[in-house]
Amino acid sequence: xxxVVACVAAILTVPLTGRxxxxxxxxxxxxxxxxxxxxxxxxxITVVPGVPNWVGQPLHLLTFVLSALFLFANRRLPGALLVxxxxxxxxxxxxxxxxxxxxxxxxxxxxxxxxxxxxxxxSNVVHGARLSWLGDVFAxxxxxxxxxVFSVGDVVVxxxxxxxxxxxxxxxxxxxxxDVASLERVAVSSSTVx
Length: 194
What we know:
There is one protein chain. It is built from seven helices and four strands. It is mostly helical. It has a two-stranded parallel sheet with strand order 1-2. A two-stranded antiparallel ribbon has the order 3-4.
């Protein structure tokens, strides 16, 4: 949830630069159904209590495959490659640890989470974790809004989403055609006023 909130916050910085978010309404994404399928699978494995590890871990990896397919279909969008880098670093940590994102004990405690071992968690303290530096090593402290753990890959994804929003909104303004006739009328009217 913290990553979604951070991505929305990054996108909302566009108006701070004097640009409009309106061009995002014209954005046509390809294969959107893949994202929805990935979200549904993530929802099931993280919200439904008691999902066993042998079910949750492969489904967690599947959500990354689905996300990669969506990203590939939309690879020409600004920032898509950077989103892919962030997602790939998360996938590397998850795949290296059997389908669970390894969280550092410090980050897990700081966020106020109990260590759960009897059922699937998409992120959890993994003893002897491989690629632990790519895992959830940062935390929003317990008691703060959206307390959670997050990774370097998550930070890269948030930065990429901000970059995408700024580039897309700027591109739409720059791509707007110049109405030469209107400019000529303004030039003529301003010269007659003098």
